[in-house]
Amino acid sequence: MLPTRAVIAVLLLSGWCAAQVRPCDCDLSDPVKLAQRQCGLCREAEKQPLDQPYFYLKDVNPRKPNRWLALPRAHFEGGGGLHRMTHAQRTGLWTAAIRKARELWGDAWGIAINGDHVRTQCHAHVHIGKLLQGVETSNFVLVNGPEEIPLPKNGTGLWIHPVGNRLHVHVGEEITETVLLR
What we know:
The protein has helices at about 5-20, 30-35, 40-45, 85-105; strands spanning about 55-60, 70, 110-115, 125-130, 140-145, 155-165, 165-175. With about 180 residues, it is an alpha+beta fold. It has a seven-stranded antiparallel sheet with strand order 1-2-4-3-6-7-5, with helices on one face. Strand 6 and strand 7 (about 165-175) form a beta hairpin. The radius of gyration is 17 Å and the shape is globular.
């Protein structure tokens, strides 16, 4: 019989493997591939006007009634996409997400992007919601604005919230959207 820690590790690993989106093979020219669950946000991006670089969607997950998503209209090969975006594209996405977050939650907002290994959708997207109280950690970078938000390393995610006129960017985590009100 396996020790308790080994059983827990196996369960966690199996959940991690089921959640990740590798490989991301959303092919805009192939309706069968594009119909896959993980390509849902790619399908939504295709419905947007070509001249609209970023757009918002209400999260359709019934367990997340208070969540919104900010997405780029453009597709980036390989899933996720932050590392394939230019600095200007990332800054635009962060700016759009923060704008919507402030509109919805005032100064109590938070935005998050999950790491590559736990993402369930291929298309790049940022979760927008109200930051839960008491989630602050000491693992953050203090920045002045969206243009200074660092690119996550090693496919990890990050979460961001305001502190005065600056932003705390919490880095090096995989599952980040849990800091937001569902």
